Amino acid sequence: MELTKVTALMKATALEVAILAGHLLLYPSGIVAERLSPAPASAKRPSTSTTSAEGSDPAGAETSPPTAIARGGGSRPVILLHGFVDNRSVFVLLRRSLTRNGRDHVESLNYSPLTCDLRAAAELLGRRVDEIRARTGHAEVDVVGHSLGGLIARYYVQRLGGDSRVRTLVMLGTPHAGTTVAPLADAHPLVRQMRPGSEVLRALAEPAPGCRTRFVSFWSDLDQVMVPVETARLDHPDLLVHNVRVSGIGHLALPVHPTVAAGVREALDAGGPVASGARDEGPGSTSVA
Questions:
Q1: Phi, psi values for residue 4, rounded to 5°
Q2: N or C: which end of the chain has fewer CB within 10 A?
């Protein structure tokens, strides 16, 4: 291994350790679900019908209610969804970045640490999305998911009709093709669902014609949880996808690093993945080391 690669890996590992230590301190603060924000006084309620069958919208579901707020009266709400054995505390810095840059309605969703099926968490996300739409009057929301959280949100969008409600889905270090890290962790059902060839991943690989959500997937070349690292790229012929390669940081740094936060903001605000210092994969990658 070249000296530069070794140095980059050592820096990324040191940063991961520091972030882990800080996150362990914050973790207790995120165990309890956050208090929900009140609805704006002028908000009108769109239809809140929930999806009743996998892969289809409920009959009569209204996806574009003609309310002023739904047409741009304020920014779309953002839902933050954490990864495996984590909670909303992982998004403290990203949430602050979003709110300081114009996102006036950002909420985090905790799913139970006892959850054993990714699909159950996706249904929970669907209920929260409809509740937020009803409470704020917005027809659509944006979602940012870290690791397993991105996979949960993707399942909701592709398989539970969430593409009519989620405008942009940003995923940070999500195992789209499955990760082989930590083989001994297969005792947990959620880990098995994140393995290559699992039933859930096979379902997500199926055709998804007409899917309306825009997908932005950030992946890092030094992510030691995604094995291989390219598994965090999303490649699907029916989906509108932008893959963004980030260099110099690991898995835990993705939801906290300021360069990634800038990329997330632009993906949500401008409808694309490219931000200052972050480029859509193809022209190159962004280095944050």
A1: -65, -40
A2: N
